[in-house]
Amino acid sequence: MFIGTNPNNFEDDSSAAASGKNIKGGLMLYINKNPIHYYTGYGEVISINEWIKPKNNSYSIKGFSSENIYLKIAKINHNNQKISVIDKKYIGSGDIEETGFFSSDINYLLPFFMATINDNEKTKNDIKEILFNLKMILETKKSRELYDLLLAGPDLWQPMAYNNNWFELKNNYIKRIHTQYYLQGKQKIEFDINNLKMILGENVVYVYSGSYKNEIFKSHYLFKVKGEKEVIYTPVIKFVRYKSKWIVWEGT
């Protein structure tokens, strides 16, 4: 998925790129009625293989944008880098609630599509319990437990959706997690369960605590980690149900 505010080459179906400027507001992106990403401007390229299913798929965009939005769904042939645009949508600025549809030729079915999420207190309490456990893991710096928790989803979808040698790539993800969650020396986790926000989709729960702005983007975050000299904000987490248990589908 390519999304931005710059209309350059939008009409060209043999290319896809994303660029633009910051927007006032923010847009939640959904694939197949599941929240996957929060967009606040500039150009972003979002991999969606871990969110789609064979044949018929949908996408939705909800929120407010001060700028016009240009979005493309494209397939990339990594052998020759050829791009095929599957769908594209121009969205005018203002309050936005748009839906589109596209078809895929993938031959795998991601397991989370088998479980529909119920919007009830048990769902929310189950998620909170996992997050309390995650906070404890961070405070005690139990790295192995952190990696196991955050990579449960990628262990399933990386080889399935991207047909790669995941176990060779996994070390890169572990390094990324270490950078995203740990500071040198002592660190304090700031996390108020009362500020926790959950966006429930059909099969996915998107969880965050608030928003922060780095040098470029405004983003959602889950934990604020304060060190002696630095502060980091950990990524949002997306939970799914797998074999009757909650797992982190994406959290890096």
Describe this structure in words.
The strands form five sheets. The protein has a four-stranded antiparallel sheet with strand order 4-1-6-7, with no helix packed on it. Helix content is 22%, strand content 41%. The protein contains four helices and 17 strands. A hairpin with a 2-residue loop joins strand 2 and strand 3 (34-41). 27% of the residues are buried. It starts with a strand and ends with a strand. The chain is of the alpha+beta class and 252 residues long. The mean pLDDT is 93. It has two domains: 2-104, no CATH class; 111-250, Roll (Nuclear Transport Factor 2, Chain: A), CATH 3.10.450. It is globular and about 50 Å long.
Short structural description:
The protein is an alpha+beta fold. It has four helices and 17 strands.
β-strand amount: 35-45%
The Cα radius of gyration reads 18 Å
Largest sheet: 4 strands, antiparallel
Shape: globular
Output the strand order for the largest sheet: 4-1-6-7
- Fraction of residues in H or I helices: 10-25%
Q: What is the residue-averaged pLDDT?
A: 93
By CATH, the architecture of the largest domain is named Roll
Ranges where pLDDT stays below 50 over 5 or more residues in a row are none
Beta-strand segment tally: 17
Number of helices: 4
- As for the number of domains, it is 2
Distance between the termini: 18 Å
Q: What would CATH call the class of the largest domain? A: Alpha Beta
Query: What structural class do you assign from the helix and strand content?
Result: alpha+beta
What is the CATH topology assignment of the largest domain?
Nuclear Transport Factor 2, Chain: A
Order of helices and strands: EEEEEEEEHHHHEEEEEEEEE
